[in-house]
Structure formats: C-alpha cells, structure tokens
Amino acid sequence: MTLHLELAPLISLGAGIGILVFPKLLNYIVAGYLIVLGVLGLLGHSF
C-alpha cells in the first residue's frame, strides 16, 4: 500500500493551523506560502 500526499494541501493545512494559533502571523504565513508555491512552480513541480 502506497500513501501518496500532495505538497500544496499539506502547506495549506500548516498555514491554516498557524493562522489559528498565531493570528498576527497571517502576513508572514501567506507570504511564505506564496513564495513556496512560486519557487516550486518555477522548478516544474505540479500541484
């Protein structure tokens, strides 16, 4: 049995939990999320 996980939903889940725990970090979490998705997109990884 193989477990296949996508990266984008895991990042989204982590960002959502971080926002719930530390609401003041919203700007940093959103910026980090966008940077990670942008870098992965440039490297050719699909989501």
Number of helices: 2
**Which stretches of 5+ consecutive residues score pLDDT under 50?**
none
Structural category:
mainly alpha
What is the helix fraction of residues, given as a range? 55-70%
Describe the sheet with the most strands: none
Q: Which descriptor suits the 3D outline?
A: flat
Describe this structure in words.
This protein has 47 residues and is an all-alpha fold. The protein has a domain at 22-46. Helices cover 68% and strands 0% of the residues. It is built from two helices and no strands. The chain has helices at residues 7-21, 26-42. The relative contact order is 0.16.
Write the layout of secondary structure elements.
Elements lengths: L6 H15 L4 H17 L5
Helix pairs in contact: 1-2
Summarize the structure.
With 47 residues, this protein is mainly α. The chain has helices at 7-21, 26-42.
